[in-house]
Design brief:
alpha+beta; 3 helices; serine/threonine-protein kinase; HATPase_C_sf; Histidine kinase/HSP90-like ATPase domain-containing protein
C-alpha cells in the first residue's frame, strides 16, 4: 500500500499492519503481531521523518509465509540510509529496537530511493 509521508500516514500504516496480521491469525497481543507492528512503526516514522521527498508517498509491503513475516517500507530518498547510532535524548533507539525484534533486517536500493526490510520468524508452537 501507499501512504502519505506524514505522521498520519505512518500511524495508518502501523494500524494496517497490526490489523492484517490479526486477520492472518497472529493476534494483536501475540509475539509476531507486536514485533512486526513495532518494526513497522519505526520504519514508517523513519520514512516520514528522514526519507520524505515533498509530493512523494512511502510504500509498505507485508508478506506472510509459512515460517516468516516480511515487512518492507520504501521511500524515495536515496541519500539517507538507516544507520545505527548512539542514543541521544529521545532519539537513536529505533534501529536497536528493530535489531532486537527482527530475525533479519536490511536495506535494498530501488529507483528512486530505498527499501528497508525486516523478517520475523514464526514459532510453530505459538503462532498460527
Amino acid at each position: 500500500m501507499r501512504f502519505t509521508s506524514t505522521p498520519r500516514g505512518a500511524r495508518l500504516a502501523r494500524r494496517l499492519v497490526s490489523l492484517r496480521l490479526d486477520e492472518w491469525g497472529h493476534p494483536y497481543d501475540g509475539r509476531v503481531n507486536e514485533a512486526v507492528t513495532l518494526i513497522s512503526a519505526e520504519f514508517a516514522a523513519n520514512a516520514v521523518q528522514h526519507g520524505r521527498v515533498p509530493g512523494r508517498d512511502f510504500h509498505l509491503r507485508l508478506a506472510g509465509g509459512e515460517d516468516v513475516v516480511r515487512l518492507e517500507v520504501s521511500d524515495t530518498l536515496t541519500e539517507r540510509l538507516p544507520e545505527r547510532r548512539a542514543p541521544s535524548g529521545e532519539g537513536g533507539r529505533g534501529l536497536m529496537l528493530v535489531e532486537a525484534l527482527a530475525d533479519k533486517w536490511g536495506v535494498a536500493p530501488r529507483q528512486p530511493g530505498k527499501t528497508v526490510w525486516a523478517e520475523v520468524r514464526l514459532s510453530p508452537a505459538t503462532e498460527g
